[in-house]
Amino acid sequence: MQRPPEPYDLAWYTRRRVLAATVGIGAAAALGGCHASASSSDALQVDFGRTAFFPLVKSKIGVGRALDSDKILDSLRYLDEIRPALYDGELRFPDTDWDSMKPYPIEVRDGQVQVRRNSFLATVQSELLRRRIEVMYQLEGAPKQWEDAAKAKAPRKFPRPTDLRAAADAMGTWAKLYDGHPVSWCMWNEPSHNLTGSPDLASIRQMVDIYEAYAGAIGPKGLFGMASFVPVDAHPRRQLGGRSYLETAVDALRKRRRSDPDLPFDYLTMNNYGEDLSDFADGARNALGGDFNTVPLIQAQFGVFRPGEWEKKGGTALEAARSMAALEKALRIPDLQTFTFSGWLPHMIAFKGGTALRTPLFNALKLYARMPDRRTPVRGGLPDGVGAMASGDEHRSSVLVWNESGESRTIQLELADVPPADGGRTELKVYHIDQRHGSPLEHSGSDFGPSETVRLRGHSRKLSKTVTVAGPGLVYVEVGAVSQHPVLDRDGLSATLVRKHTYADRVTGPKGTTTVRGNAYGCYDAVRAIAYLGAEGDEGTGLCGAEYRDLPQTLDTDVRAELPDHQPASSEALFGIRVDYVLGHGVAKSVLWHGDILDRRRTKPLPWGRRGATADELVHARELDRARVGHARLALALGAHAPSGWARSGARAIISFWMDSTGPGSQARFLLG
């Protein structure tokens, strides 16, 4: 696989399984192959020719596991089958018996700190880099030389280091060994149960002290974020004056950043198990308020069972079905940028002897990764415990149905506007995941593949298919060409990514509750150079961007969008692409390519680059007009509008994609290159 050009940046490795798009109603010729079931049939209607509003930003899927076992190295090859965006690894510095800590990376001799690599982390880094998978290290505790061993137990597993400055400097020296690698650092000393074990201001001050010291010493080239608390506590605390622990901690960080504006705060994680994430996301959003809109939420660790039972119930069809139900809910949170399933071992890969068994959750994620990026609404009644999601585009249509109950269900799928047969190469495939299919820990069989493959011929755009979903279990139905998918399997730009930019349009109401205006979203897939934007309400800013260097003189862009027929009424209305040209001394000029949705009375500035509400130069690109943008191709003449000396200084620019208050249900996808 081609290696990314220098400098390495986390965003270059972003790999999202995006869903956002199409559906309706249908009926037609039966294909046969129906499964018998004692239960009655429920009908699902899916029209792949229609678009449904569905936030995309959460579709960056990751897997995670504490880096405590050398079996992780043996498992990395199986990441190729899922193609996750991110690997989230815990590095627990007090635990010297972990394989990732052998030999221990930090030593102090004669008062001098010495750091060294070990083969475990070197292998993890190189294997993830080769696969373009981002790694996020959650740093726990302090180096053993500054760990108070007497206090390092529950509820204070990671107490304040005995010498914070020395511990931070040692961590910074060690972390700089990985400056040339795609690393997202996350400080994870959770005060609610790891510093003082009680909800008081002292533990919050310790949390922020450690965060500031570690961030300053590491000086990340990539991203640096804060891990929230287990659980994300959104409940008011009497000891904190009626504020939640998370709100109080973010307030303390907010105050610290006033005196140190360069203190990075690139994301906020949530680490929770067995819960609907909505309440946790609401609590985190309320803590961030409207002044941290460039800080996305990341679900860094998730498992569908509560701690204590999660360890015992892994590797089952029930876990896979519940996980897909939880993922579907998480996908609706507009400012949740990453969703990570914990337990790569053994919940997805279970080693039995020398054999790596792929569990139902592994297989479910493998199928989910095949779904196109345009989400399709599903219509029809479903019994309790059964859910579905669908997506489709001009190349592939797919439906995923899960059943959390203990009773099998027969589902009648009525599919309309499926992709036409492509020279006799279009196939329908059906996959089953249940106790006897793709679940080796519940049944002896470990093979997994389509239970049915039908070659489609003719020109019919409607299909009827009956499937039985075991209880518990999943069924995945896909219609598409045999060849690779031109969007899911495309490469990114040849230009070098410097940094990715994100934005969440959060606003705080009079009662202190923060929401995302218009459920707007924006996310950038830097692996394939794709921007996704949307706004559900009349108003709301869908915005994302990325900075590149070594850009071409002309940059081709493929645009697909759904926009309302009428002119938006908001004075903030804008649909377009903005380029901020960077010279050696900073951003020198901004140019906005826009369609016929542009209100020059705009006041809302871009939160990076030149920060203007429009741009220094406006270019009307008719390809972005509402009448043409259903599917359009636009060539951005970067060189023709660049300031003098831009190409000689590295051809560097921030490219931002903007869909602001364009009308209810607006969505767009931009493919660069």
Automatic annotation (TrEMBL):
State the superkingdom: Bacteria
Q: SUPFAM superfamilies, alphabetically?
A: (Trans)glycosidases
Q: Which InterPro entries match?
A: GH, TAT_signal
UniProt xrefs under PROSITE patterns: PROKAR_LIPOPROTEIN, TAT
Q: What is the name of this protein?
A: Xylan 1,4-beta-xylosidase
Q: Which organism is it from?
A: Streptomyces hygroscopicus
